[in-house]
Structure formats: structure tokens, C-alpha cells
Amino acid sequence: MIPPFTELRTGGRRLNWESSSGHRWALSMFVLCALTGCLGPPKTGPDMFASADVFGAPRGANPISETPLYDSSTQTIHLAGAVNEVLGFYLRVGGSGRLNVAVQDFVSDSNHRLADNVDVFRIHHVQPPRFPGWYVKRMEPSRRPKTVPDVLVPAHAPRGGLPTEVGRSRPVELWIDVRLPKGTPPGDYESKVVVTASGKAISKLPIKLTIWPFVLPDNAGPEFVVDVDHEALFAHHVMLDGRPYHPPRVLEGSPKRRELAETITSTMRLLREHGLSPHLPKLYPVAKIDAKQNMQVDWADYDSLVSGFLDGS
User: How far is CA 84 from the centre of its chain?
Assistant: First the structure.
């Protein structure tokens, strides 16, 4: 989820806007686009619309006719970025049936092909357990969202990915990353987003990509510090005796210790790869009070898990 009141700078450029919920957003060369379908099986494919803000995009069937990201006359998405940048766009697909979405390889005018540079994620909504005080004061109850798009599941994941059943009231929402790694020749590229229903293509949405002839530095600037709720993470990924397993700590002797540790480690690594600084505010060492009312703190279990995060290994 895009954090509020943040600014992402890339190549000295930035784009600011205010969402319909009143939040200020600051993004740099950050591309968002939305795709939605008709109320029923489409005749020539889903209806489409483009939006510069996923939170400002309407959830109904009425399309936004045009933005700088989307040419409604040719039904084409336009992306632009520099070498060593990651572009992202939001897609929403409606209709009916079992839908799947894939992005073809990008091919340049000189027939240079960008392969394996696209990651497709399915967006899942969560219900906020509470709103922070500043948000409650700023936003009246009628304008507070019941759910927010927050969880990204890889399309190839065995659970929560693609393909998936969609209908009138449950379109599929996707986030697509397009990576422009170092060594990529600048120029104009083309690709297509292919939407299939029960294995049959029902829409091919063209994408035109312009890669500018300069390279962004590896260090994109200030990092974002994020909290990781390890218990909620465990409950989503780890099962014991057929039930979600979410212990408050990762203790020696736990029947799922290895799986718990791997879940945290892979999550921390993923967040670091996206330029975030994750930490575990709810994870703490084992503390006990002995018969003499002295506190004994056992750091062994805690250190065995977090030491690699602290030293970068």
C-alpha cells in the first residue's frame, strides 16, 4: 500500500496530487492505471479506465475516460521511466468467469526484447482494525474506507493468486511491476496485457513504454521504516494441526520454528529489496521474574533470529 504523506524522488522529478480521500501523495515517475469490465460478460473485452491514484479510482463500472497515462482512442497504456527504475501500474478486471492476466515481453523498435522483467501481483483488501488519531480528526466517518488495498500476492502463488473467479461485484485487482534493469537499451518498447477467461483471450491491452537514456542511482534516497506484525504474518502463512499458528515468539523447541523463521526472513528480505527498512516492534526476548523478584532476560532465542537483520547478513 502506498504510505500517506511520503515523497518518492527519482531523477530529480516528482509528481504531487491529492487523492479523493483528502490525502496528499507525492510520487515520482510512478505510473498507475486501472482496468474494469462491464456488468456481465464483455463482448469485445472488458471496459477500461485509467487512474493516477488507486485510492481515487471508483469501484463501480463507470469508466474515467482519459488521463495522461491512458489514450482512450487507441486503448493504450503509456509508461515512461529511466534505466534502473521500477514502474508500477494498477489494473482492475471485471466481467465473469475464471480470469487470468499475463503481460507479454516488451519488444523495442530494434527488436530488443525485455524478458522476465514483469511481476504480477493480485491485490487483496484488508479491514483496518483502527485508524490513527490524526486520520480520525481529519476524516469524517462517512468518508473512511471500510477496506483498503494492502496485500500483494504473486500471481503464481498457490493461494490467493491467479487465475481467479470474478463477477459483477468482485472484480480482480492487480498490481504490476515493470523493471528496467541496468544495461537495458533506451528507446520505445511495446507489450500487451492479455486477459483470458477459461483459457480464451478476451482482451489484449497495448502498453507503450519509453525508456529514457539515463541511469538512476541504486540509492533512491531516504528509506521508509515499516512495522512488521510477525504474529499476523505467521497466522497467514503457517499452519499447525489444521489451524493458523501464530506464537508471540520464535522459540527453540517449537514444532514450526524453522518455518516461522523462514517466514520472517523472507519477508524482511522482500521489504529490503523494495527499499524499505523493516523492524519487528512486537518481537522481544523472553523475560521472566524469579522467586526473588529479579528479572531474568534470555536473549539467546531473540538474537538467533534478529542478529542477521542487524548486521545485514
Answer: 19
